[in-house]
From TrEMBL:
Protein name: TFP11-domain-containing protein
GO MF term set: nucleic acid binding
Region (Disordered): 1-83, 586-609
Keyword Protein biosynthesis attributed: no
The species this protein was found in: Gymnopus androsaceus JB14
Residue stretches of biased makeup (Polar residues): 590-609
Length: 695
């Protein structure tokens, strides 16, 4: 049938003979395996032969012979790689032996035997037991061709054995010496312990003798009302120096306090703390060791940080400790007497008795008793005295009550001086020109911050001084009344120099120059009298004010006016111009004026207390450098609720510019067509100065 269809034997099927020649074969897969299981090839040998017949390239992997060769090469390669692989871990059983067991196995018993046990001579054909290695070394041997005798190995083994024997003998001797030394140490320890016990018993008996002497002295003093605490000093000194270890171990301070307690109670009952503040303190200081006063605490533990580079100190744990016997004696006997004296006999207006008492005992008392004395007894009475103080009725200045306690209040300072500051502000608020300067007012400078101090004076004092120069002071060469200006001079050591300079430039020199001009334009003026009058006024100012720029500038302007009058001569009455000092100063203070650099005021004084530089202080200094005052108004802005300040060239606080400070900026009312509006905007410092001078 195939031949009828055109097939010829030896050729493939198809018109071109590309078909198969042999019948189709099948190849069975291994049981329960899928396609290409473990690299199984599906192609049969018949299909490979047909592919080669057609000219296709068939991989060598399909050839059984090639596959067999490659399998051998792969096995050889794996076998070679196995030699470099890390061997499998085998669990090793480790048996630990003590030093004594090792010595026992080596034959070095703790009894002192130095033998190394049984020795087997294996150098011959038959192993035999020998008594020592010397018998082995005596056996002669000669080189031999017998491979079983290996003389070199036996020689090396013998050398190793001899070295080990030497080491084991040394270890055995060392063990014996250590055992004997251990016995000696045990015997010495027992002997020393017995000696310590005997000595302790003897020292304890000596301590008991001292305490017996103390008890006898206490009994003798029980009926002697003239006894003194100093009589115990010798016994206490012996107790603390000769028996220092026993004193701490057996807490003998209880014995000391129990001995002096009856005498201390009797003496404290007759003691007047305010009259004799140093009583007992010198004796107690000498007994500091015996009374365990201010005993050093255990230092805090130290630990190394995670990097091991530095030592960290652990914060001590706050543990409430019971009072020592002496602290209990002070709390129950000494403190009640002091409390009674301070509450019933002491007045804060005469602080010295209580101050001396506190200073005498403060460095010796335990902290909790010292704080109780200050917080519960002294400061409440001082604060009540400050609250009741009246400037008109009390003859004692306020600083006499407050200042003596300032070095001792520490962190309580703000609460302590708060009421005193309010009292001082009230005093300055009620002060009137003509009243005496408040006593000790200058000393309060260091209690206030610089800004608070200057603001208080600008608010309560400067307007009153300006009003008296403006309304009460008259320049009259014939009958000069110096009382108003003397009221201003008395504040020269308290007010800031720049404020005083502005005060005189605004209120004094315009009047003084007007009178000088009127005098110089007279037809028959006497320049000698004018010069004397000038010298009188310049000498009237304190030396601390004569060098101030604003005051020296006013007198210089008077000299210029006198020189102009001399130069004009007879024409002075008609040609000498009348000075307008306020206009001249306003022109000189303008930022763009060439003379503005001459109007800088003297900087503010440095405070004795350290303070932070704020933006408000910068604004105040800038205003002062242009002869402007930065005065608190006591009001607040309606929207921002920030305090308002008036920047004004006049000390009376009239005119000027209202501003407030917020976010490190100066805020003022915005300028509109008809003037200032109600909206506040941030302005520069130069704009603040220009608007304050022009308003």
């Amino acid at each position: 049938m195939l031949e009828k269809m055109g097939w010829k034997a030896g050729q493939g099927l198809g018109t071109t003979g590309e078909g198969i020649v042999t019948p189709i074969e099948s190849k069975m897969r291994p049981e329960k395996s899928g396609i290409a299981f473990k690299g199984f090839k599906e192609k049969t040998e018949q299909s490979k032969m047909e592919a080669r017949r057609r000219g296709e390239v068939v991989s060598d992997d399909e050839d059984p012979r090639t596959r067999k060769v490659k399998k051998k090469e792969r096995e050889a390669k794996e076998k070679k790689a196995e030699a470099w692989r890390k061997p499998k871990k085998v669990k090793t059983v480790v048996q630990h032996k003590t030093y004594e067991e090792i010595l026992a196995e080596a034959g070095a018993e703790m009894s002192g035997s130095s033998g190394i046990g049984q020795i087997i001579d294996a150098t011959g054909a038959v192993p035999r037991e020998v008594t020592s290695l010397a018998d082995v070394s005596m056996n002669s041997w000669t080189p031999s061709a017998d491979s079983t005798r290996i003389p070199e190995v036996r020689h090396n083994i013998r050398l190793i054995a001899e070295s080990c024997k030497t080491d084991l003998d040394g270890l055995a001797r060392e063990a014996k010496l250590l055992e004997e030394r251990k016995k000696l140490v045990i015997q010495e320890d027992l002997r020393l312990r017995k000696r310590i016990e005997d000595e302790a018993e003897s020292r304890l008996q000596q301590v008991q003798l001292v305490t017996t002497d103390i008890d006898a002295k206490v009994r003798a003093f029980s009926s002697d009302y003239d006894a003194s605490l100093d009589d115990f000093s010798l016994l206490f000194y012996k107790l603390t120096t000769d028996f220092e270890a026993e004193f701490d171990r057996y807490r003998l301070d209880e014995v000391v306090v129990a001995a002096i307690a009856p005498l201390v109670r009797r003496m404290v009952a007759q003691w007047q703390p305010l009259e004799d503040p140093k009583a007992f303190v010198s004796t107690f200081r000498n007994w500091r060791r015996a009374l365990r006063v201010n005993v050093d605490e255990t230092p805090p533990e130290t630990q190394v940080d995670v990097y091991g580079t530095k030592t960290l100190t652990a914060a001590p744990v706050q543990i409430q400790k019971p009072m020592t016997p002496f602290e209990s004696l002070l709390w129950n006997v000494w403190l009640p007497k002091v409390r009674t004296a301070i509450n019933n006999e002491w007045s804060p207006k005469a602080p010295q008795p209580a101050l001396k008492l506190y200073e005498a005992w403060s460095t010796f008392l335990p902290p909790f008793i010292r704080d109780n004395m200050l917080d519960q007894l002294i400061l409440p009475k001082v604060q009540k005295a400050v609250a009741d103080w009246n400037a008109k009725l009390d003859q004692v200045p306020l600083q006499t009550i407050v200042f003596p306690w300032l070095p001792h209040v520490g962190l309580r300072l703000e609460d302590f001086v708060g009421d005193a500051r309010r009292k001082l502000k009230s005093l300055l608020r009620n002060w009137a020109v003509g009243d005496d300067l408040p006593a000790g007012l200058k000393a309060w400078k260091d209690v206030f911050d610089v800004s608070d101090w200057d603001s208080m004076l600008l608010k309560y004092i400067v307007p009153k001084l300006g009003a008296t120069l403006r309304d009460d002071f008259r320049v009259n060469p014939r009958n000069q009344n110096m009382e108003p200006i003397q009221h201003v001079f008395q504040w020269s050591d308290i007010l800031r120099l720049s404020v005083l300079s502005q005060l005189f430039e605004t209120e004094f020199f315009p009047k003084w120059l007007d009178v000088l001009h009127v005098w110089l334009i007279q037809p028959k003026v006497s320049f000698e009298e004018v010069a004397q009058w000038y010298s009188f006024w310049k000498g009237s100012f304190p030396e601390s004010l004569q060098g101030v720029s604003g005051i020296s500038r006013g007198f210089t302007r008077g000299l210029q006016l006198m020189n102009q009058a001399i130069e004009l001569g007879p024409d002075a009455p008609s040609r000498l111009p009348k000075p307008d000092y306020r206009a001249e100063q306003a022109l000189a203070s303008a930022p763009n004026s060439p003379r503005s650099g001459m109007t800088k005021s003297i900087p503010t004084r440095p405070s004795a207390r350290t303070q932070e530089i704020t933006f408000r202080s910068i604004v105040e200094e800038f205003a002062a450098s242009h002869n402007l005052l930065f005065i608190p108004t006591g009001r607040a802005h309606e929207k921002s609720r920030m305090p308002l300040f008036r920047v004004s060239p006049s000390v009376d606080g009239k005119g000027g510019l209202l501003v407030y400070i917020l976010d490190d900026a100066v805020w003022a009312a915005a300028e509109g067509v008809g003037g200032a509006t109600e909206d506040y905007k941030a302005i520069s410092l130069d704009s603040m100065v220009l608007r304050a001078m022009s308003s």
